[in-house]
Design brief:
With about 130 residues, the chain is mainly alpha-helical. Helix content is about 60%, strand content about 10%. The protein has one domain: 5'-nuclease (Rossmann fold). It has a two-stranded parallel sheet with strand order 1-4. A two-stranded parallel sheet has the order 2-3.
């Protein structure tokens, strides 16, 4: 399964034509992209108004939604954050470490356009789509 990061959903909504957005379009047409609960929150926070938020919510809830963090994954995320920090790499948002760790631990690929995931690919084994 492929979890889609908010960076790609937002690119799709803004009409930005990038390789990850094109891949998301194919996933929507031929597969089932996963929506993480925290990613759902990030995308909905960016809605311009309540009506847009409701439309986005309805559209995103058409896909499987997964819970990204429980106690086990919170601990693993903190461990991964420290591992990267030990290499001199600081991830800007904790939520990104949680998203990456979810994918690593659950064996999912991540579709993203966010540079903070690159060290997770290189040093932690994050698979990308």
């Amino acid at each position: 399964m492929i979890l889609v990061d908010s960076s790609v959903w937002i690119g799709l909504l803004r009409g930005i034509d990038t390789a990850p957005v094109s891949r998301l379009r194919r996933l929507i047409e031929y597969g089932d992209p996963l929506v993480g609960d925290l990613i759902l929150c990030e995308v909905l926070q960016g809605a311009r108004n309540d009506a847009d938020a409701r439309r986005l919510q309805e559209a995103l809830l058409e896909f499987p939604v997964v819970t990204l963090v429980d106690a086990e994954l919170a601990i693993a995320s903190a461990t991964n954050y420290r591992r990267l920090r030990g290499r001199g790499i600081t991830i800007r948002k904790s939520i990104d470490v949680m998203i990456g760790t979810f994918c690593i631990e659950r064996g999912h690929a991540l579709l993203h356009s966010n540079r903070d995931f690159e060290p997770m690919e290189r040093y932690l084994g994050l698979q990308t789509a």
